[in-house]
């Protein structure tokens, strides 16, 4: 091969490598792509406006958040060790309201649609149905950040309480 051929081959190879590395660098996953999947609950803390911190689902909560690629989600959170109902038979229909109330205080469940705002790194969820019917139809917006396999979500509710929730990517 002559000198011109070698130089041409080197130039083409160099240009190809430059394009490939530029493409690889430009392929950072979008926020939505990073969020899609199943996440297990690690912790959830509520900080009230006066600085008081509480863990509504206990120190070692159970839960899952599933965000699918089509924009649907399901979330379930609960405090382990909740008392069992005393009712036998049709537990759902025959359990007294007071027992249900105590069980519900340590449990959250909702589902609906989700989207992201890439610019401000937020997750937006719209409730279709929830254990607490008052929030059905409502929309929540939380800031999200990642640390390895952990997802941190931080948001404020209407009462000025800050909720900090950590999930770990399910494996």
Describe the fold and architecture:
The chain is built from four helices and nine strands; from the N terminus they run H-H-E-E-E-E-H-H-E-E-E-E-E. The chain has two domains: 1-28; 36-169, Lipocalin. The chain has 171 residues and is of the alpha+beta class. The model is unreliable at 6-11 (pLDDT under 50).
Offer a concise description of the structure:
The protein is built from 4 helices and 9 strands, in the order ααββββααβββββ. It is of the alpha+beta class. It has 2 domains: about 1-30; about 35-170, Beta Barrel (Lipocalin), CATH 2.40.128.
Secondary structure layout plus pairing:
Layout: H1 3-25, H2 31-35, E1 37-47, E2 53-54, E3 62-67, E4 72-78, H3 91-94, H4 97-105, E5 107-117, E6 122-130, E7 139-147, E8 150-156, E9 162-169
Antiparallel strand pairs: 1-2, 1-3, 1-9, 3-4, 4-5, 5-6, 6-7, 7-8, 8-9
């Amino acid at each position: 091969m002559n000198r011109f051929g070698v130089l041409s081959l080197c130039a083409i190879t160099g240009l190809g490598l430059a394009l490939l590395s530029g493409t690889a660098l430009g392929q950072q996953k979008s926020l939505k792509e990073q969020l899609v999947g199943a996440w297990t609950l690690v912790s959830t803390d509520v900080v009230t406006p006066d600085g008081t911190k509480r863990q509504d689902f206990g120190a070692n909560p159970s839960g899952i958040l599933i965000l699918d690629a089509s924009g649907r989600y399901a979330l379930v959170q609960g405090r382990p060790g909740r008392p069992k109902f005393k009712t036998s038979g049709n537990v759902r229909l025959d359990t007294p309201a007071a027992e249900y109330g105590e069980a519900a205080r340590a449990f959250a469940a909702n589902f609906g649609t989700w989207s992201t705002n890439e610019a401000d790194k937020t997750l937006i969820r719209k409730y279709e149905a929830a254990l607490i019917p008052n929030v059905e139809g409502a929309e929540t917006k939380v800031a999200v950040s990642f640390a390895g396999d952990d997802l941190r979500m931080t948001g404020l509710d209407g009462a000025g309480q800050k909720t900090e929730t950590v999930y770990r990517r399910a494996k």
